[in-house]
Amino acid sequence: MKEGRQFDWGAVVPYLVHEMKVATVEALLWIDKPLSVADFARLFDEKFNKPLITRHLEKLVEADALVVTREQRTRGLAEKLYFFPPE
After folding, report:
1. Model pTM?
2. Positive or negative: CA dihedral 79, 39, 19, 64
3. Could you tell me if residue 3 is inside a domain?
4. Which domain holds residue 16?
5. Could you give the CA distance from residue 44 to residue 10 in angstroms, rounded to a whole number?
C-alpha cells in the first residue's frame, strides 16, 4: 500500500457483515448462555426466519466464531445449541 493511503473499512463492512450475524453475537453476549435457532427466533421476534438464522449460525461456526455446545432432542427433532468457543 502506498504511503499515506487509507482504506475506509466503515464503507465496506456493512456489505460484508450481515445484520443477522451481528444480532446473533450481541444476543449471546447479552444472554450469556447457549441458544438454539428457536431461541434466536423468539428473541428476534420473528424478524429473521429460522432458515436464515440457521444459515448464519452455521457460517459463524465455520469461521470458528461460534461452536455447537450441545445437540438435544426436542419433540423428536435434533436441536443444536450455539455459543462462543471455550477460551
Report:
1. 0.78
2. negative
3. no
4. 10-83
5. 25
